[in-house]
Each structure stands twice: as C-alpha cells, then as structure tokens.
Amino acid sequence: MSRSVHGGRHELGQNFLHHTPTLDRIVRLVRETDGPILEIGAGDGALTRRLAPLGRDVLAVDLDEHRVRRLRNRLPAVTVRCADALRTPLDRPVVVGNLPFHLTTPILRRLLTAGVWAEAILLTQWEVARKRAGVGGRTMLTAQTAPWFAFTLHGRVPADGFRPKPSVDGGLLTISRRRVPLVDPAERAGYEEFVRRVFTGRGRGIEQILTTVAPRPWRAILKAAGIPRSALPRDLTPQQWAAVWNAWPGNR
C-alpha cells in the first residue's frame, strides 16, 4: 500500500474499527437521527459501507488520499473527500466518526464550539468517552459545555475490535445539542469562566469553593438547587450548574 503524503498509519493515528456489534450499534444510532451525515475519518470504509444504504446524503472525509480514492471507487453514491477533520465544516445535522485517538481532544473541542450539527455519534478512547459522559464525576470541559450539549455513553469497545489493535479500549459516545439550552448562549463565555474558577477554586465543598470564588449567600441557592454543601464541582449535574449560574446575581 502506498504511503500517504501526510504520513503512515502512526502519523495519521489510524486504528480501523472492525467490531461488528459496534458498527451495527452506530448504524442503529444514526437511524434515530435525521438529515445529511458527515463521517469523520472514513478510513477503509467499514462504517461508510453501512451508512450508504440508509438512503441519506453522506459526506465521508479522510486525510489519506489513497484510501479516499479507493472509497470513491467502491461507493459512488457517497461523497468522499480528502480533508482534515480539524478544518472540515461541521455544517451537517449528523456527525459520525471513529476519531483518531491522538486527535480526540481537539476534534471534541471543535465540535463543542463550532458548527450547526445536532447529533454526534463518536468512537473515542474509553477513558475520554467515560469522562465526557460524567461516569465517575464530570470534568471541567463537560461541565462547561453541558448547558448546551447532552452526553451519553453507549458502551465499551474492546481494543481487539480495532485493526491494528490499540493499547486502550474504545468507547461509544453520543453528543446531542440541546433544543432548549439550560443557559442563555449569550452568557456562554461568562459561564465557562465561572465553571473554570469553581473547578480550580479552593475549599472542602462546593459552598466553600463558591464563597472563595465569589462571596455571596450561596447556602440558599445551593439548597434550592438540591446541592449538598459538601458536594464537589465534579458531582454537580448540568441542571445544578445551570441553577447555580442562573440564580447568581453576579452572572449579569
């Protein structure tokens, strides 16, 4: 096989999915969505071949020009482009992809800050999928974006379900854009900074941390939101974060 001008498999971070149960599950999740589809990192087309029969407009992108050429020949009904996932417009309602593991974080950050997509169905490293979905506690990035996006974990994918086999398992994650945001989008920058300050603030519980970050009568606000005073920032649900922000007079 010819080497891509962008490098070999290691440079492109390619681990191709061949785990049939996961491929079938991704297609089932896509069937629950509507509209044109953007597939990121099409690779050898294991998923593309399953998306093509859905009868929807599919745009598949990959950085390897040789794989793009072969996929075009095999699937003439699909639009296949040689393109960088970090530069491809996110202007389709549905985004699907087996994300290159070394690019997972930048692609996720881009998805959460750009485009007009409605549903994203993504295969990432297991730990990334677990953290984004809030299993075992929410991360700062998840808390910062949860008022506008809902994260759901759909299962673990064994490492031997990829070829070549990576050193870690994968995880199937969906991200849905909320139709009704929990926080006014105009306040997003202020809200994200507030969450950052709380996550990095000092204190033994959320009340102490909030008081350090912005002295206010937090006890009543926490009680109204059903948040224990001893909770940690990672313990708060998206609805509780929104309640704290929306009830705090200092956010305006």
From TrEMBL:
Organism this protein belongs to: Amycolatopsis melonis
Protein name stated in the entry: 23S ribosomal RNA methyltransferase Erm
GTP-binding recorded as keyword: no
Annotated keywords: Methyltransferase, RNA-binding, S-adenosyl-L-methionine, Transferase
Gene Ontology biological process: methylation
PANTHER family documented for this protein: DIMETHYLADENOSINE TRANSFERASE (PTHR11727), DIMETHYLADENOSINE TRANSFERASE-RELATED (PTHR11727:SF7)
A single GO molecular function term of this UniProt record: methyltransferase activity
InterPro entries per the UniProt record, alphabetical: KsgA/Erm, rRNA_Ade_methylase_Trfase_N, SAM-dependent_MTases_sf
Binding positions for S-adenosyl-L-methionine per the UniProt entry: 15, 17, 41, 62, 84, 98
Ribosomal RNA adenine methylase transferase N-terminal domain location: 22-179
Family affiliation: Belongs to the class I-like SAM-binding methyltransferase superfamily. rRNA adenine N(6)-methyltransferase family.
Gene name in the database record: erm
A Pfam family that the UniProt record links to this protein: RrnaAD
Keyword RNA-binding part of the UniProt annotation: yes
